[in-house]
Amino acid sequence: VESSDDRELILFRTGIEYRNLNKWDQSIETLQQLCLSVSRPDRPESTMLYQANEAIAQTYLERYCTDTTLDIDQRTQHLSHAADHSMIVRHVVAEDKVSTEMHLIDAQLFYFNDDKQQAFHHLELYLDARVAECKHSCYTCEQRVRHGSVPFSCASCQVASYCDRK
């Protein structure tokens, strides 16, 4: 018998894989099942609820951007659904705890909804987080830099970090 945590992880990964295969309806359905599973009253609020809603928002947004078979009403509906799930994430998670990818999703949503100022704000937050990630992990092996150690930095960009000169 699998645990509920295992089932949730399987649903999450399945939803992401469906999205990677451009099977958006299956992705959304699977991720919504996950949301129902983790938002029961007998369970404390989990990070999986946040991750599932973020993944649903990203799925709707990717479909909006790439599915050329959608008519204007369907595109508008997908953008609206993406914004709704993004709003859920913002209500569940404190602003300083929002993932790097969520800032990119929000930047795109604000841009498509013609709020350029908010779009640029979230894009700036996304880029700041990505630069910070580059400074705290090795560009080659992707391992995190140990606390207190000084990594080697790229002489050209001064951002990318490395474990050693090799």
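(the above was protein one; protein two follows)
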Amino acid sequence: MKNLTSSLLTALVLCRSSASAQAPQDGGQVAVGIRVDTSAPPFRNIFLTWREYLQSGSGMYQPNANWSRADQDRWPFYNLTLPWTHLATPGLPPVRATIVAIDPVVPSSREEFVVRTLFTTVDTLTGATLPVALTRVYAIRENNRWVMANAFPRLTASWHTAKFGRITFVYPPEHRFNATRARQSARFVDSLAAAFDVPPPRSITFVVADRPEALARILGVDLALPGTSNGRSVTANLMILSGLPIYGEFYPHELTHLVLSPLTHQLGTSSLVDEGLAIDIGGSQGKLFPQLMRELDDILNANPTLRIADLLDPSRAQDSIANRAAAALIRLTFERAGTPGVKRVLAPVKTAAGPNHWLSAAQVLGLKSTELGAAVRAIVRRDAR
């Protein structure tokens, strides 16, 4: 069960919330809880609409008649709960949805309803049911029919906003807004875009919450796996979600993902090296590059047969160790070949096993594989001090 839980966490963390995120092979199973009345309107109409959406498979990521047109016009990746409920890693057990409640938002009113759904999976070893997420979407009337809508506009209607450069910050009234860090984010966006010669985003919505649970709640997620609500970028929506005080108004890791997403998408960069790039530039989990290298150095010292090249092999499953190794590869490339060299490494060599950035780095730096491995290992040792 521990391995499955780890895989679930990896799947949710790796789902970068882009419109091209991997959809399940089908819409999966939809069950109904004992509190849900499906016999009479409007409950039956709402139930049928939500069930049809859940069973639409890849249609969940495409324009969908069962979702609010207003949400779809606002966000290309319009269902903000999807990263928590549909896993991006192949080979994991399917997710089952159980609709547990359909309740009026205002008692005795029939204008708007909240629909709560529990998403679970099954441990293939023990058969135990494991909760993945409990979500909350809203049923509203649009063009004389019931459609689904996000929690976000409703729960942030009274939140404050502040604009710095291209970024509009959205934060709760009780939050102590840090204008210094907001300006730092605005400068970071422009300087990073200039360094990689990419057009800066026309605008960014930067949502700041003071704790992960508060961030998840405004997105419509009432229960999530630990660590999945700290923050993320929704690149298709030009949106940054910040849920930890350590980041607040300045979240360079996720800003890197967002600003450089057009480039990494164009070059076919793997999620592993995309993560390594963001770690090199913006750190990870509140840790800067040297601390992450110290952790990687400790792991490599404790496992002397583990090679950097093996960690970055496209056939190997991605994890936090490989992410750190990818960051070290990016750092080495930048030091020896500058930003133009990094951009070339972001374009992998296509192999039968998958996109291979190790081969592209060897070509860019003019090194044999063993020489490249030694050079990356030297970067890890140096910055771990």
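Reviewer note on protein two: The first helix runs from residue 2 to 14.
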